[in-house]
Amino acid sequence: MVKAFASEELERRLLVELGSRVRLGGFVYPLLLAAVALQVEIPGTYFWIFWLGTLFVLLGSIWRTVAANRAANASSNWRSVREEIRVSSLLLSALMSFLTSFALAVGPHSDFSHLILFGLISWNALGCSVFAPDLSLAKAFNLVSMIPFLIWCLTVQDSFGWSSALIFGISWLFLWISAKLANTHLKKMVMTQIQLESQADDLRNARDSAEEASRARTQFLANMSHEIRTPLNGIIGVTDLMRGTPLDDEQRELIGIMSQSGNHLLTLVNDLLDLSKINAGKLTIENVEFDLRHLLDETCRPLQLQAESKGLEWHLQVRKEVPQLCLGDPVRVRQVLSNLMSNALKFTDHGGVSIDVGMADGQQMRFVVEDTGIGIEEAKLQGIFEEFEQADRTTTRRFGGTGLGLAISKKLVELMGGRIGVQSAVGQGSVFWFELATSGSRS
Ligand code: ADP
């Protein structure tokens, strides 16, 4: 079925090609005949027969042009359009060759006769290449346009006639082969074009359904994360309230574990919600004025306490050229910062963590979070900002995590029009940085 469709489509396209090739060529025939009539002295009544024939050639050309114009838009009637082009072309060729050989036969023999003969071979060659989209037509044209001349050549019965017949015969064979080759080549090209178009259609459909599936998945994830977060907040709230009630040591410990697990789960759900929002293009970035130093203090305080309890040094430096008030999204700046800082803390057992906020090129605000932790292998650095990418499965088992934090950070920084990067060496620590445009901020 598919094959039948492809072969019908092939035939139809070849017809369109044929139509575009033969559209205007027919009008050259009456001009050529007029040139013959002017050079060969056609005697008496033959002259009128010749011109009447030429008028028919003109009418045939008009008919073929009309049919050729319909070829491009032919749908179910394409076969009848092809028949019209075939019949009109053969009629034209037959008339053309008959009238020219007629003129040669009835007119006096001259040098111009030779010229006409060899001009006719060129005409044949041209016809074979023009009709290449339709091999049957090319073959029929070849025969129809040759036979009257061959007859004429043979009736002349002199050396010129014999040698012309020989040249005509050889040319006929050669042109027949070249028409066949041109037709095969053209068919291959059109077939490849049809296949490529159908592959492009398949790919487009596959892409559309993949996008649709991805949208549905993202939407589902967003809905689920949202639905999970609401009861989870309730559980965490209740455990916090229970902590304030009289409890024995064991109960306190159990409530502590519950609260910790709840908070862990909440972080995970929040990450998933953020990621699905970003992927669905639904996360909007605010542009409000905020106090950067205040934001840094607030973000650092709980992490600094954690660092101290781990016995790590904590160092925060905000350069004086950094404006006090900035324009941007404080919630998202804080989210990226706390993700980088908590990673630094998580992956560092000795030494410390330092945060440096300054200006890069006077235009960009640059945040640098440096640690003296385990570092990241060179090979893993490339994809570290991809979703679910974790540098090392064993460290993941040891330190936990989902591999979403850096992916979210990168997307947030990019949504804020900035860029993010990292330098790291195993055993020597890591330097994560991001830059944000400061346009609109003021000191
Ligand atoms: P998570 O920490 O939840 O696994 P992230 O996307 O924040 O996810 O980090 C991805 C991975 O990058 C981590 O699992 C860790 O292997 C590596 N990584 C991130 N920050 C650091 C760091 N400061 N030092 C060493 N490795 C890091």
Bound molecules: adenosine-5'-diphosphate
What's the rounded overall pLDDT mean?
86
| Count of runs of 4 or more consecutive helical residues | 13
Looking across the biggest beta sheet, what order are the strands in? 2-4-5-7-6
User: Could you tell me the radius of gyration in angstroms?
Assistant: 43 Å
For the sheet with most strands, the description reads: 5 strands, mixed
Instruction: Please bin the fraction of helical residues.
Output: 55-70%
Find the structural class using helix and strand composition: alpha+beta
**Count of the separate structural domains:** 3
Give the topology string: H per helix, E per strand.
HHHHHHHHEHEEHEEHHHEE
Secondary-structure map:
Elements: H1 2-22, H2 28-39, H3 44-71, H4 78-106, H5 111-130, H6 135-156, H7 159-243, H8 249-279, E1 288-291, H9 292-309, E2 313-318, E3 325-328, H10 330-346, E4 352-360, E5 364-371, H11 378-381, H12 393-399, H13 405-415, E6 419-425, E7 429-437
Parallel strand pairs: 2-4
Antiparallel strand pairs: 1-3, 4-5, 5-7, 6-7
The structure holds adenosine-5'-diphosphate.
